[in-house]
Design goal:
alpha+beta; Rossmann fold; 11-stranded antiparallel sheet; 5-stranded parallel sheet; binds NADP nicotinamide-adenine-dinucleotide phosphate
Amino acid sequence: MKFNVRSRGDHDSNVLTQRVKSYLQEFDLEYDEEEPEIVISIGGDGTLLEAFHQYAHRLDETSFVGVHTGHLGFYADWQPDEVEKLVIHIAKTPFKIVEYPLLEVMIRYTNDQETERYLALNECTVKSMEGSLVMDIEIKGEQFETFRGDGLCLSTPSGSTAYNKALGGAILHPSLASIQLAEMASINNRVYRTIGSPVVLPEHHTCLLKPKNDVDFQVTVDHLTHVQKKVKSIQVRVADEQVRFARFRPFPFWKRVKESFI
Ligand code: NAP
């Protein structure tokens, strides 16, 4: 089996990365950065987000597992003192795959020629580079509201514990293939009105954001930031692709939530 190990880049993660790499090579596994079947991410959830984006073009062939060298993570759930056990599991046992939903973000531009497509593991956020964000929001082809405020966050279920949670969004179990739309400081008065609470859309519903003015936008996809000009619309839906995590033992989602937050 081909593998890659990705480090957060700090001293402890780098040392552990070298250990995992040499243990796996001792078991005759092949180190391959181009086409790994399994990627071991060593650091935190942010490190796993980076690993995911590195291999987002081959999600059918690559599985991920995370070791946390800081605090407990949602995607990084193995501890540094367990890496020998993890290596033996990877080398000796066929692993179970757990799949989590992703978001597909399609940005269309006013010239109608180009579109950009991104996959998000946590979320996509949209903010205006100039003044308030003003967007028409369509849900499943119907005008829902005109949003005016700081920004919008559209998250996956596994991303619901990240930025979405800080915005007062609900925590969703990753088995619920869905999009959660959360507001960032909406303006609500006699002129402007939004729903004011997070909204969860099912798998087959599409959310379309249409700018009301010709300004530049800051669009983030997980840890990546893009400045977008001349945007006609931003369409978000549950992606056809899923991310695959290698599971060697049960670690229930609600246990991770409890251990992280309570
Ligand atoms: P960062 O700003 O360095 O760290 C963001 C924090 O979010 C880290 O503690 C990270 O955990 C944690 N995190 C990432 N994914 C998570 C998840 N699914 N559930 C719970 N916590 C999670 O940025 P980064 O490491 O590059 O990560 C990018 C993410 O930061 C974005 O996807 C967004 O969700 C989050 N973010 C949050 C806020 C906010 O809460 N106000 C604002 C901006 C961005 P680790 O320490 O284990 O890496």
